[in-house]
Amino acid sequence: MTRLSRDFGNTMQKDAVPAVSADVVFASSRFPNYKIGANNQVVDGKDDPKVLSMKEVVARETAQLLEQQKRLSVRDLANKFEKGLAAAAKLSEEAKLREAASLEKHVLLKKLRDALESLRGRVAGRNKDDVEEAIAMVEALAVQLTQREGELIQEKAEVKKLADFLKKASEDAKKLVDEERAFARAEIESARAAVQRVEESLQEHERMSRASGKQDFEELMKEVQEARRIKMLHQPSKVMDMEHELRALRIQLAEKSKCSLLLRKELAMSKRIEEKLSDSYELDGSEALGSYLRIKPCSNNGPELSKCSIQWYRVPSEGGKRELISGATKSVYAPEPFDVGRILQAEITYNGQQITLTTTGAVDPAPGLGSYVEALVRKHDVEFHVVVTQMNGVDHPSESIHVLHVGKMRIKLCKGKMTIAKEYYSTSMQLCGVRGGGNAAAQALFWQAKKGVSFVLAFESERERNATIMLARRLAFDCNIMLAGPEDRSPLGS
Questions:
Q1: How many CB atoms lie within 10 A of CB 469?
Q2: Could you read off the pLDDT of 48-96 as tens digits, one per residue?
Q3: Across the strands, what pairs with 410?
Q4: Measured CA distances, 91 to 1, 42, 80, 105, 278 (Å)
Q5: Residue 347 near residue 311, CB atoms below 8 Å
């Protein structure tokens, strides 16, 4: 018998080992890299770290799909699910191939074991031990292959479960895509209908615009023709003649107004005579802003005015309750801007008997005063030259010129560079015409800057005095403050 060495594959007779069946197909071109560990246990060699197992690949793909699900649109999600389904089918095919390869490995190991068994009966000695060691290795490989088959079966179940999940998700995605597509089609149809309605309304509007434009053009032509006709009629010479006629009419109207005022006074006197009134007094003076009214005795039979109690009132021209004028207790009263359009009454009381004198009509405004005040409102600060006649109810002997500044937010009284009083508009501030004061009452006003500080100021003209009252009240009203007359009468009645 021929002695066999450890490398028995090179010295063993060829007819001693039966040939491997031709129907065996190897899954790989190389034999697996197995090693014998402790207690003759077969262990795998170190695999390539770059090669991932099928379970890891499936887990990574699933995580990526779940991560991208939130970012994808419905259509992209459906495409992803279809790709995942294809990948699952591919993995299933690979699992089948691996199963076939595993079966082939079992067949190969069985044939190899049979060959080694037949060889063990033919050899002896050390070669027989080697053959038995090889048989043990083959049996260990068979056990290892059986374990791999179990893992493969488990992976196959997981792959099948993933394929079912991806298939269901793909169906849901397709359903969602169909719903979104139907909704989009409905939106498109609605938008088309809206566009069609807008086009129809635009066409109708265009037709109406053309018709109305033609009508407006015809009316405009008529207006132009009429304007040309009026222009031809009103030549410069005719306009000048009309201006002269208008000026003459204004002069006649002013003269007739004076005559009407005299006639109204005469009529009032005649009525008093006819009614046998025994009034001993009458109102003298122009009933207009910028002048003053005086109670004048008509006979010597009446009591002296110094012994009588006098109180002035204002009454609305359209009728209503009369309003007491605070501080107006003298025989002379100068109307202020607040009295314009109202009737004035003077009530004289003596020994319990009362005599009421009434103006013949409402107080007339001063010509041009309104436009003058409007021009002053546009300025930031307006200055008026005044003389202080009283300060805190006491006569002021000095007749030096002061400057009264009426501003947007405050009123300031100065003498040169020295400031006498400076106060912002407030509810404690009071501004009105002076009650009494003789012939100069129409040019003086009372100003209470704050409680305990008051002045009586004389202006250069009645117009400036009335303009100051109107301007200050207007600017204070812009600050949501209403300037009114005084409540106490002592400073004004002096």
A1: 22
A2: 455 566 667 667 777 777 766 555 555 665 666 667 667 767 766 766 6
A3: 424
A4: 53, 28, 16, 20, 131
A5: yes
CATH of the domain at 150: 1.20.5.440
Q: Give the range of the structural domain holding residue 341, as residue numbers without chain letter.
A: 283-363
Q: How far apart are CA 289 and CA 336, in angstroms?
A: 6
Per the structure, the count of domains in the chain is 3
- 77: tokens are 């999600």
Distance (Å, whole) CA 382 – CA 223: 47
The answer to whether residues 384 and 435 belong to one domain is yes
Q: N- to C-terminal Cα distance for the chain?
A: 165
Q: Give Cβ neighbours of residue 393 (< 8 Å, ≥ 6 apart).
A: 454, 490, 491, 494
* Helix, coil or strand: residue 431: strand
Give a yes or no: residue 180 inside a domain: yes
**Residue 346 and residue 422 share a domain:** no
Let me know if residue 278 belongs to a domain. no
Mind listing the pLDDT tens digit for each residue in 298-313?
877 777 888 888 999 9
Residue 113, token pair as written in the block? 């074991």
Q: What share of the chain is helix, strand, coil (3-state, %, to 5)?
A: 55, 20, 25
pLDDT tens per residue, range 170-216: 788 788 878 888 888 888 888 888 888 888 888 888 888 788 777 87
For 253, counting Cβ atoms within 10 Å of its Cβ (0-12 exposed, 13-18 middle, 19+ buried), the class is exposed
Nearest to 469 by CA among 429, 415, 417, 437: 429
Strands (E), 182-325: 281-284, 293-297, 309-316, 323-324
Helix or strand or coil: residue 53?
A: coil
Tell me whether residue 75 is in a domain: no
Rounded-to-integer distance, Cα 494 and Cα 208, Å: 77
Same domain, 336 and 427: no
The closest of 40, 51, 54, 52 to 144, measured between CA atoms, is 40
Residue where one domain finishes, among candidates 363, 395, 416 = 363
Return d(Cα 433, Cα 456) in angstroms, integer. 9
Q: Are strands 332-333 and 323-324 parallel, antiparallel or unpaired?
A: unpaired
